[in-house]
Amino acid sequence: DVQLVESGGGLVQPGGSLRLSCAASGFIFSAYWMFWVRQAPGKGLEWISTISYSGGSVKYADSVKARFTISRDNAKNMVYLQMNSPKTEDTAMYYCVRAESEYGTNWGRGPRGQGTEVTVSS
Q1: Sign of CA dihedral 9, 2, 58, 65
Q2: Percent of the chain at pLDDT above 70?
Q3: How far is CA 97 from CA 4, 40, 86, 121, in A?
């Protein structure tokens, strides 16, 4: 079975840093693009970052560009999101999402984890 387990969330002060992790299992991790999405209280899902299956291509939403960094370790089946200089508006549940298909770039119907909650507050 496909499993995605996020961790690393918590309370962080504005301007601090936090690293989210996602442990993947049950599929050939190195064949899938991976994504981070988030859902703020009372709002819909927001895509924030993408990383290709090899890690050679990354993309970011404008809202997090230059502050967040996505990375992956295919040897460990892990994907990460380094959050630097978070803002209060980054408060949300963060989800790791797998692409719908091998080497595909769509995430809308891909499996996702249970999420890890991030609260940015002083």
Answers
A1: negative
A2: 100
A3: 8, 16, 21, 26
